[in-house]
Amino acid sequence: MRIRTDQGYYNTNFPQGINTTSINNQGTMESIQIVLASRPFGLPSSENFRFEKVNLGSLSDQEVLLKSWYISVDPYMRGRMNNVKSYAPSFQVDQPIAGGIVARVIESRSESLAVGDTVFGMLPWSTYNIEKADNLRKVDTQSVPPGYYLGILGMPGLTAYFGMIDIGKPKAGETAVISGAAGAVGIVAGQIAKKQGAYVVGITGSDEKCSLLKEQFGFDEAVNYRTAKIMKKAIASVCPNGIDVYFDNVGGEISDAVIDNLNFHSRIALCGQISLYNSTEIPFGPRISPKLLTRSVLLQGFIVSNYSDRFGEGFSKLTQWVTEGSLKYKETIIYGFNKLPETFLGLFSGKNQGKMIVEIE
Ligand code: NDP
Predict the structure, then answer these.
(1) Contact between residue 176 and residue 247 where contact means Cβ atoms under 8 Å apart
(2) For residues 302 and 321, what is the distance between their CA atoms, to the nearest angstrom?
(3) Predicted pLDDT of residue 17
């Protein structure tokens, strides 16, 4: 990885001990940001990121100065590193990576936000940012941990809510299977299916995560896809009545095995395909269409933003469940701005339990 300073570039591995605090250099604000250094081919590496020192300038009217507090890493950001047209615009080479950030207001020229407020925004990966107050949402950190606005009370939670309630529609007595079950979306999706009275099975990548799902999140069964000899059979053995709802976070061979066990009139909420995000070739697999046809399966892909006009409903339901304690959550918190790239890469080897976020300072 290369760091650019006012003196030029120097090479480093993930830098330790970068001074991320703002220095008031000639009366203007400095920040450290992370830019896309190059586009990855396959699995990204540290070489695709670069730390840079930037001068933020000074505040204009209606703007606030923000100190980043928690920064989200999300699998969809991998797609944004490619130069392809998709639902989220590509990151540009030499421009900052951006995503969900919870930040504190440390200076304000807006009437709507005061110094000390905590806000959520889609912002550059930077230790400090200047942003228009209108682009930020003030959040309450008294009753829930601030990182929840990047997870269960943010985009992943809403994704689980709408995917399960609107597409999966599990009914009492049905079987719901969730892949990527121990992650930010999966643990919420499974608990929501449980709330609807379903028998819930999670698929994940370690025995520790399987235990977590059953012991802390109320899943009835869990399958470790890394140790299962034949996935189709491993899934069948814990789903004796077949599968009525499949919440798919991963795609690939795991989904092929789940689809083999689907019931007549089952539903697939096609949420993510993380097992394919680093593919360098067009993946080839079994033709699933005949199974979907003969079992009258409903398959619907969705992007959480499809539901933007109902975010209020989702947010208030999730908030109610979290505050009454009927919906549990877990965060994997990594400390230090310098850890952001490697934390993001850790999503692709299952380093997280629940939502992975980076705490700054
Ligand atoms: P997670 O918190 O679940 O983190 C990713 C997890 O995916 C890892 O912990 C790992 O868990 C698993 N994983 C990584 N690589 C593979 C692989 N090759 N095969 C199987 N599992 C793998 O991420 P999120 O909960 O934030 O996102 C889950 C999915 O939902 C992603 O595909 C994401 O793109 C998608 N998504 C879609 C949205 C939409 O609007 N449709 C919105 C938000 C997310 P393990 O140890 O189990 O392998």
Answers:
(1) yes
(2) 23
(3) 41
Q: Are strands 137-138 and 118-124 parallel, antiparallel or unpaired?
A: antiparallel
pLDDT tens readout for residues 286-336:
999 999 999 999 999 999 999 999 999 999 999 999 999 999 999 999 999
Q: Say yes or no to pLDDT of 16 above 60.
A: no
* 8 A C-beta contact, residue 179 and residue 186: yes
Ligand 1 atom with least separation from CA of 76: 34
CB 254 within 8 A of CB 203: yes
**How far apart are the C-alpha atoms of 49 and 2, rounded to whole Å?**
8
Q: Which residues contact 345 (CB under 8 A, 6 or more apart)?
A: 43, 44, 45, 46
- DSSP string covering 126-164: BSEEEEEGGG-EE---SSS-GGGGGTTTSHHHHHHHHII
Sign of CA pseudo-dihedral 286, 288, 252, 209: negative
Cβ atoms of residues 139 and 154 within 8 Å:
no
- What is the C-alpha to C-alpha distance for residues 161 and 193, in angstroms, rounded to an integer? 9
Which tokens belong to 204?
A: 């994940």
Using CB distances shorter than 6 Å, the residues near ligand 1 are 74-76, 155-156, 159, 180, 182-186, 204-206, 209, 249-250, 254, 271-275, 302-304, 347-348, 350, 352, 356
Q: Quick one: what percent of the chain has pLDDT higher than 70?
A: 93
Name residue 200's beta-bridge partners. Answer: 176
Q: Please return the burial class of 303, using the count of CB atoms within 10 Å of its CB with bins 0-12, 13-18 and 19+.
A: middle
53 in Cβ contact with 32 (< 8 Å): yes
Tell which residue, 310, 312, 251, has the closest CA to residue 276: 251
Q: Could you tell me how far CA 63 lies from the centroid of its own chain?
A: 28
Q: Report how far apart, in Å, the C-alpha atoms of 57 and of each of 30, 93, 123, 130 are.
A: 8, 22, 16, 9
* Cut 0.90: pTM above it: yes
Residue 6: is its pLDDT beyond 50? no
Q: Cα(9) to centroid of ligand 1, in Å?
A: 34
The conformation of residue 90, written as its DSSP 8-state character, comes to P
Which residue in the block uniquely carries the two structure tokens 């840079």? 52
